[in-house]
Amino acid sequence: MSFSSIYKVFFRRNAVFVGTVFASAFVFQAYFDSSITKWWESHNKGKLWDDVRLKLENGGDGDDDE
Amino acid sequence: MGIAYNTRINTRIAPHLGKLSLKNLFTYSPTLMLWGGASAAGLLVFIEGWPLFRQTFFQKIPVFGSHWVDDTPEEDKPQ
Amino acid sequence: MLSQIIKSSRATSLRTVGRTARLSTTSLANKSTYRTPNFDDVLRKDGASDRSRVYTYFMVGSLGLLSSAGAKSTVETFISSMSASADVLAMAKVEVELNAIPEGKNVVVKWQGKPVFIRHRTPHEIQEANAVEMSVLKDPQTDADRVQKPEWLIMLGICTHLGCVPIGESGDFGGWFCPCHGSHYDISGRIRKGPAPLNLEIPQYEFDGDKVIVG
């Protein structure tokens, strides 16, 4: 796709331009949200409630007396 | 008294609202439709976090819908 | 590059119609006989490919994308800060043991700061509530519409007139009586006499074994 056709399709009409911006903002939000969450969960692996609950279900491992 | 032969120009004003008349509204309609689509997309951005719309629309999007499914176990929710 | 510019400034030519039409916008300028510089040498070969325009608009659009997502996030943060917090939601329901309420007794519990009347009705009272003709009611509603189990009547203890708390087991109809302006409610909590316009409100509740969960 040449630059001219990109220009003609997306930028020539302001309505299309704004619409594209909003539509990609919608997609971007979801994508950004899930990737940040994924990063956060990998960064804090072992400290999350999901991991702690697994540990508790497997019988506490003597951590109860602390 | 003579007869006045000069007649007044008979004009009528086409129905309009400010600068908008039926004719140019028709001309604008493709652009207006595109703007409608654009504002719908803008609306989508802002209702993305609204639980009602998440459950009624976004979860039903074919491939990516699972992003909006809340898989928190029932006992971990505050209510 | 520099030498090219110098060269092009020297190499001015008489503008001919159509040849450098790219630089002008009006046909009048095309017909002009003024000597104008010929920029052909310094113009990019892909000058008409809209490359820089696409780049600029893409950047503008990306800024718009990020700011609309940011604006939405900001708005969402403010709005969700207005919704009930977890401790409020935890208080939003109340559990009542029904075993402790003997037949023919009222219990008042507090739910979201409002009194809730729970009455264990006797079979006679249920019969009485069902026997009432719809035509005599100000706010017609059958007893079956107001209870899930006939022996348990659960309703908000707030007079629909001006919000006083009615007194149980009193009034002309054997139900509740509001002392503020004299509204009489029957054994199903329906308004029968006095200024109140509506029956006592029924909250959402569900039975869970011997317990009832209001909310």
Automatic annotation (TrEMBL), chain A:
Subcellular location: Mitochondrion inner membrane
Pfam families to which the protein is assigned, alphabetical: UCR_UQCRX_QCR9
Signal peptide, first to last residue: none
UniProt xrefs under Gene3D superfamilies: Cytochrome b-c1 complex subunit 9
Domain of life, source organism: Eukaryota
GO CC annotation terms, alphabetical: mitochondrial inner membrane; respiratory chain complex III
Membrane-topology descriptor: Single-pass membrane protein
Keywords carried by this UniProt record: Electron transport, Membrane, Mitochondrion, Mitochondrion inner membrane, Respiratory chain, Transmembrane, Transmembrane helix, Transport
Function of the molecule: Component of the ubiquinol-cytochrome c oxidoreductase, a multisubunit transmembrane complex that is part of the mitochondrial electron transport chain which drives oxidative phosphorylation. The complex plays an important role in the uptake of multiple carbon sources present in different host niches.
Family membership noted in the UniProt record: Belongs to the UQCR10/QCR9 family.
Stored PANTHER family: CYTOCHROME B-C1 COMPLEX SUBUNIT 9 (PTHR12980:SF0), UBIQUINOL-CYTOCHROME C REDUCTASE COMPLEX, SUBUNIT X (PTHR12980)
Protein name: Complex III subunit 9
Gene name of this polypeptide: KNAG0H02600
UniProtKB/TrEMBL annotation, chain B:
A GO CC term attached to the entry: mitochondrial inner membrane
Keyword match Membrane: yes
Native species: Huiozyma naganishii (strain ATCC MYA-139 / BCRC 22969 / CBS 8797 / KCTC 17520 / NBRC 10181 / NCYC 3082 / Yp74L-3)
Gene behind this protein: KNAG0A06950
GO biological process: mitochondrial electron transport, ubiquinol to cytochrome c
Example of a GO MF term: quinol-cytochrome-c reductase activity
Entry's transmembrane regions: 32-53
Protein name: Cytochrome b-c1 complex subunit 10
Keywords: Membrane, Transmembrane, Transmembrane helix
The organism's place on the tree of life at top rank: Eukaryota
Annotated InterPro entries: Cytochrome_b-c1_su10_fun (IPR019182)
UniProtKB/TrEMBL annotation, chain C:
Domain spans labelled Rieske: 123-214
This protein's GO CC annotations: mitochondrial inner membrane; respiratory chain complex III
Keyword flag Transmembrane helix: yes
Enzyme class: translocase
Keyword annotations from UniProtKB, A to Z: 2Fe-2S, Disulfide bond, Electron transport, Iron, Iron-sulfur, Membrane, Metal-binding, Mitochondrion, Mitochondrion inner membrane, Respiratory chain, Transit peptide, Translocase, Transmembrane, Transmembrane helix, Transport
GO BP, one annotated term: mitochondrial electron transport, ubiquinol to cytochrome c
Cofactor note: Binds 1 [2Fe-2S] cluster per subunit.
Gene (name only): KNAG0G00580
Membrane topology: Single-pass membrane protein
Remarks, miscellaneous: The Rieske protein is a high potential 2Fe-2S protein.
Molecular functions (GO terms): 2 iron, 2 sulfur cluster binding; metal ion binding; quinol-cytochrome-c reductase activity
Protein name: Cytochrome b-c1 complex subunit Rieske, mitochondrial
InterPro entries: bc1_Rieske_TM_sf, Rieske_2Fe-2S, Rieske_2Fe-2S_sf, Rieske_Fe-S_prot, Rieske_Fe-S_prot_C, Rieske_TM, Ubiquinol_cyt_c_Rdtase_Fe-S-su
Keyword Transmembrane helix attributed: yes
